[in-house]
Design goal:
alpha+beta; disordered N terminus
Length: 281
């Protein structure tokens, strides 16, 4: 009967006979496929309720598409054993047990012989009955194989969908780091219209060195510093007796102690309580 080429799946599908009867009854009640010859020699094909043409042999175009789709399904053969291997192993097991029983029976008593033979018979009957059920069930193996192939296809599609969702979420999470900023239209319009940018931070001015003073500005600044020093000395700045000899010029005060030292001091700010800054000694 060709059962040796069948494969025994690891799972079974219940209700296959009832499903086959339902499909058969449905096919019996549908419109018969036929073509009518027209007077001009052409033929007219009938269509079913779904709009598909029925062929003369009773098969529709949808059946051909279904067979093509079955060929595209992944073939699942994991955890399956050929039926021929199962039968061969069971026969080998039964023969081995029988040989072992024949070799050990002469050394037993009559009661033990009957008991062992009965045990062997019952055990082999159970095994062969299971094999018979398996052989009869294997007739529906192609339909079950199709179902397993369809389930494997749906599982692979679910994995692809999950991978796509994960990839989209990862891309969404990485978008803020690669997002391009909007064009600064307002500042561009201001620069084009006024020729300058008025919104720079104030801290930038601290990094820009001030412009150099002219000679006239330097002279006026030194004279102002000399006036401040003179006013501070005249207003009661405590000066040691040995340093009463001093000269104020070029924004500095020069103290001279004969035979000891000469010190030049100045002020860095215009405050009265600012300490003196030693320029040179």
């Amino acid at each position: 009967m060709g059962h040796d080429m069948q494969r025994v799946p690891s799972t079974t599908l219940s209700g296959s006979n009832s499903a086959s009867q339902t499909v058969t009854s449905h096919m019996d009640t549908r419109h018969a496929a036929s073509s009518q010859s027209l007077p001009n020699g052409t033929s007219q094909a009938y269509h079913d309720e779904r709009g598909q043409p029925w062929m003369q042999n009773g098969a529709s175009g949808g059946d051909t598409a279904l067979s093509d789709s079955d060929a595209d399904l992944p073939q699942v053969d994991t955890k399956m054993i050929p039926l021929s291997i199962t039968i061969s192993r069971l026969i080998t097991y039964a023969y081995t047990e029988l040989v072992t029983l024949v070799d050990t029976l002469p050394a037993r008593t009559e009661a033990d012989r009957r008991s062992e033979i009965l045990k062997y018979t019952d055990h082999m009957t159970d095994m062969l009955t299971k094999l018979l059920v398996l052989v009869r069930w294997a007739k529906h193996a192609p339909q079950i194989q199709k179902c397993q192939n369809a389930i494997a296809y749906l599982d692979s599609q679910n994995r692809y969908f999950d991978c796509a969702v994960d990839s989209i979420y990862a891309a969404f999470m990485s978008m803020p780091g690669v997002r391009m900023r909007n064009y600064d239209v307002g500042n561009a319009a201001e620069i084009l219209s006024t020729g300058s940018y008025q919104r720079l931070p104030v801290a930038i001015k601290r990094m820009v060195p001030p412009p150099k003073l002219s000679k006239h500005q330097v002279r006026e600044t030194l004279e102002a510093i000399s006036g401040i020093i003179r006013r501070r000395i005249l207003c009661g700045e405590p000066v040691p007796l040995a340093m009463r000899r001093y000269v104020i010029k070029n924004g500095r005060i020069v103290f001279t102690v004969p035979g000891e030292f000469e010190a030049q001091l100045t002020l860095l700010q215009y405050e009265d309580n600012i300490p003196w800054h030693i320029v040179s000694v």
